[in-house]
Structures are given as structure tokens and as C-alpha cells.
Amino acid sequence: MVRRSAHFVFLTKSLDRSRRTSLESQLYAEIRDAIVAGRFGAGSRFPSTRVLASDLGISRNTVSNAFEQLTAEGFLCSRVGSGTYVAESLPDLFLRATEQPGPSRKVAGRQGGCSRRIRKWQDFAKYFPVVPSVPFRHGLPALDEFPTKLWGQIAARRYRRLPADLLGYGAPSGYEPLRRAIAAYLAISRSVQADADQVIIVGGGSQQGLYLTTQLLLEKGDTAWIEDPGYLGARSTLLAVGARLVPVPVDEGGIRVEAGIRTRTRPRLIYVSPSNQYPLTVTMSLARRLELLEFARRSGSWIIEDDYDSEFRYHSRPIAALQGLRKDNRVIYVGTFSKLMIPGLRLGFVVAPPELVDGFTALNGLICRNPPALEQLILTDFIEEGHLARHVRRMRVLYLERQNYLCAIAERELSGLLELKAAPAGTHLVGFVPFGVRDVAWAKAASDAGVETLPLSKYYLGRVPRGGLIFGYAAYGRAATRLGVQKLAAGLRHLTPAE
């Protein structure tokens, strides 16, 4: 008789071959829920797929497929030559969950009445705090440097001559003059090849662009490649529509296309940030850009190009967008004015291939009817009169100065603690922690010291080669940066080497 591990006896009671749900899905759900409930703590080792399959009386492929999905979603991690473990970098929400509340009679099977797909977003939402900003929150531009007086003058001028018809409902794709202005701006600044009809204005920044794209193109169970490490907002949005995630590693040349091809998967969607990869700040090489475009053409995959912070390149002209490299591209280009200008504007855009324009327009209209009209009018003038281009040039100079200052102060105060290197573009840096150190503990120590950083390991689905802390620097002047680094240094020096 097979002797089953006591820790996994509960699984044998839960797996039921008579249910419509597959054994793979049942096993996945039971292990996931056990981790969330705290029955398997962070770092707990799982039996091998062969042993667990034998213990449970199911096929090894069933166990392997369940482990693969749990690894992709960040619950498990594999260590070469060692085995499979519960991830050390589970979200704090999970680590604090020692028990699961029973289902309410009114909402049986759901947490607090939310659908399962919405719960995929809940952990991501905590990365957008509304409390006052402290160094080194990332994703914030220099709010105090935005030309608010000029913006107000344009707004006043527009309000004085506001046509009555613009007070009603507008086009779901956005204000046509603004779409023309964006198309012209992108052609010059990003080498994007598109006319105004391909530009769809979205009222929630690039995140809404990602949401529209996944809703439009994906069915539950479709495969999506994502950068590893990669943007949590993209990961959460893909998971929420039921996509099967395939993490593809990133190195100094960007996403490793050949590694994705070796997975022998045929992705419906591929998410990349080629011009300024988030969070590693590397640039995708031209060879890999062309390789990715050719792969998408052959496989029929669609590419989401998230052009994160691409205008802020400091030692050369901004890298041309992936979208403009080939006329037969299958690229959905997503951009936002939140980083270029101010997050409070909440306007972004999607540049869609011609065959997808009608779908994007219809879906955008269904979700928000039409983007905010008055903000679109003001933004149109801001772009057409050259103010946006001037603001970007001015911020490029300012952000380089702020990056250089952060590196100089970190070299003096954090030497021996963090390895912080300059980046060629963007508005954040990664400070790598010593090998073997858990960056989650260091991020908590930073928070306790009054400094806001994010652990790099949170952005990985696969193996974490080295932990780090993410530093946003664009929003902070010299005094705030110096004080933030000093607080961080004091907080980290209290940690033991093992932490």
C-alpha cells in the first residue's frame, strides 16, 4: 500500500473524478487555496511530481500541469536540482492569510461578492497608494514642474469658446482633432506608422488600453507571453481574463524571443515594453525586435507594445517604436499621458492595427461611452501648440540630473548595501541587493524607515536571479532624495546579513 505524505492527505479527500472540473483544475485550486490559507508556508518544499502523482493516484502530467500554472501565477517556484517550493515572495495579502472565511449564504463561492476575475486585480491595486508621496515611489513624474499656469490659460480660452455640441456625447474613439495630433506627435517622436483613424483615446491611461486589448482578443485559456520580470498591471489584467501565462525571461537585450519559442507555445498575445523594459530598464535589441515581429507574423500572435517612459532617453534619441519597424506588423501600441505630463489627467491611447479599429472603438464605447471631452480639447491645443514637446525636452534634462544625483548620494550612503546603477532611460532605477538576500525583507525595512521602494522579486514569475529594490526618482528634488537615501541606509544597516 502506498504511504501518503500527511501534509497532502487533504488533497486525496478533495479530488473527485466524478466532477465536471478536471483533476488538474481541482489540484491547482486545492494547492493554491492551501497556500493562501497558510497551510503551506513560504519556502515549504513540495514532493516531486512523480511522488505526488503516485501518492494521489493520478497521472504525473496532471500534477506537472497544475504546478506549471501555479508557478506562472507566482505561488510556486522551481529551483534547479532542488525541487519545487512555495514562493518566498508571495504578496503580503497572502502571507497574512492564516484562515479563509466561510462563504456567505448570499454569495456562496465568492469573497465579498466579487467575481473570481476581479479578485485577480485586488493584489495589484495595493501598488497604487493614495497617501502622500514619499521617496522613492515610482511611476510619478515631477508634478511640481508641470506648467499648470499654461494649462489653466489654455483651459480658460477653451471654456470661453466652448461649442454647445461638445457638451453632449462624443465619439467612442475620442475627439478627432486630438487623434490627429497624437498621430502626428507619435510619427515624429516615436516613428509610429498610423493615421488618426487608428488612434483610440482611452479615459484610464495605458492600463485601460491593456484592459481593452485583453478583453478584445483573449478567450479564457488562451496563451499569453509576458516579460519576466514584467509589469504587474499587465500580469493581473491577463490573469483576470483567464489567460494562461508563459513567462519569458528578460536579459540585457530585452525579452529573449528564442526562449519563448523554445516553450513550444503559440501565444495569442505577447506583452512587451521594448524601448524601456519595466522594471529592468533595458532596451530590446533591434535583432530581437525583428525576430519578435517575424514570429508574430508566422504564428498569428498579436503584440502589445507598452511604450513605458520611452521619451525619457538621456544619451541618444528615443528608440523607434516596435510598431513602426514593419508595415505588416501585428502590434497594438499603448501609450499614456500620465508619465509624460500628470497622472491626474487620466488620458491614454491605443494605436490599433486597421483590422482591430472597429472592435476597439465598440468596446471603448461600451465601457466609457466616450472619453472626457473637455480634457481632450485642452490636450489637443497643448500638443498642437508645441507645449508637450517642450515639456518633454525640459523633463528629460531634469530627470537626468535627478538620476545622477540619486546615484551619487547612493554611492556615498549605500555603498556595500545596494548596487545602484544608472539607466539609459526612464524614471526609476533598480538597486540590486547582495546575492542570497530576500529583497522583500529589505523593502519592509525601507518602509519602516519611511522610504517607499518595491522589491524586484515581486515582478518575477520564474526564478529570481537576484533581488533588488526599485527607486523612482523623477518626482523628488535633491533635498527629498538625500533625506530618503539617508533614511534607507539607516534602516538597512539594522538588518542582519541573512535578511
Outline the structure in words.
The protein is α/β, with parallel strands linked by helices. The protein has 17 helices and 15 strands. The protein folds into three domains: 98 residues, Winged helix-like DNA-binding domain superfamily/Winged helix DNA-binding domain (Arc Repressor Mutant, subunit A), CATH 1.10.10; 222 residues, Aspartate Aminotransferase, domain 2, CATH 3.40.640.10; 104 residues, Aspartate Aminotransferase, domain 1 (Alpha-Beta Complex). The chain is 40% helix and 13% strand. It has an eight-stranded mixed sheet, sandwiched between helices. Strands 12-13-15-14 form a four-stranded antiparallel sheet. Strand 6 and strand 7 form a beta hairpin. Helix 6 packs antiparallel against helix 10. The radius of gyration is 24 Å and the shape is globular.
Essential attributes:
499 residues; alpha/beta; Arc Repressor Mutant, subunit A; Aspartate Aminotransferase, domain 2; Aspartate Aminotransferase, domain 1; 3 domains; 8-stranded mixed sheet; 4-stranded antiparallel sheet; 17 helices; 15 strands; 13% strand; disordered N terminus
